[in-house]
Amino acid sequence: MSFAEPVPTEGKPRGRLRLPGRFTWPLFFLVLAIAIFIFYYLLTMGYLDPSVRSFALKWFPLVSINEALVWVMAALGLNIVVGYAGLLDLGFVAFWAIGGYVAGWIMSGFFDKANVNILGNPADYLALVTLGFGEIIPQVFHNGDNVYGVNISNGTKGISPIDPVQGLSISPQGIKFGSLGPFDHLSRYLIFLVLTLLILFMSLRLREGRLGRAWLAIREDELAASAMGVPLMRTKLAAYGIGAVAGGVAGVAFASHVSGVLPDRFQFAISITLLAMVVLGGMGNVWGVMLGALLLAWFNSTGLPELGTTFNSTFGTHINFPSYSFLIFGGALVLMMLFRREGFLPESRTRLVLREPERTDVEALGSDMEEQAPELDVMTTGGKSGDEGVRP
Predict the structure, then answer these.
(1) What is the pTM of this model?
(2) What are the two backbone dihedrals, phi and then psi, of residue 196, each rounded to the nearest 5 degrees?
(3) Bridge partner residues of 159 (DSSP)
């Protein structure tokens, strides 16, 4: 027996250079971020046609893109809790609110009027109080103008304005370093982009580390993870704590985005919207979560109102499309649960689990294909196998 000789490869065209699939979405978001900066830089400097400017300001205003990056930061934090550890958090808006008010306390003269001693928060039960926590914190800030005689939040008036952020101011007059004004959206875009990259890097590195593997083990089988020595309580608290850090950073960015902090901005609907971003994008996959956050944030702030305006002007109607946003989100979630439960860009492990056929279907298929054993034939035919009897 002789081995086959290697086939010569001379004269054959070589294949194209292809990057691994894991680099596809990172490169996509990197190119998208750079393209957005270049486009709006040319737009700010007045190099583009006025028609292009009017279209961009109508459908893709930079202020909405900056707000979408804030949503991405918070969604990445919630993905650590829901996507990595498999836990439920319906009160994530509380961390957003805490971050925003901390920014308001530090970046304004509020402490000149109030003397506040922050002693820390007491420990809470993990799962069932997330909903209550998300409702309690905004109410505390809403009614915090008189807490035992101390003003900690300025009540319904909020804390406004806050100190401007220092950075590179980009304008047709040139680029200079200083305090950013209310219309320096391109400069804020760079700051929010850096914050998003930091949270993204933290999320990816944690997932590959020991703590991330412990989260995945708890998500897959909590009992088995505990049997293998994973400390459940400490690991779950770490997921909530690290996710809270990302939510707090998003709150700080949002406070600088709107130049103030108001209690009405931190409603329970934010937690539901963030959860929808994680579920629709793909739980556990940071690139899917980013895609879901960007799409839903744009649709909620710009897409739906502009589509409604276009529809009403075309057909002469007066429908308030933004008032149906939750109906649309709910319908989208129902359709996703029916046809694509894993989300737009699911994690590979989650996709395999959710697309695995049910146990009853597998068993039914196996029973149709499996032949009955000869020993069973003997028992069912009264001791005869074929035409001959079986003798002991």
Answers:
(1) 0.81
(2) -65, -40
(3) 261
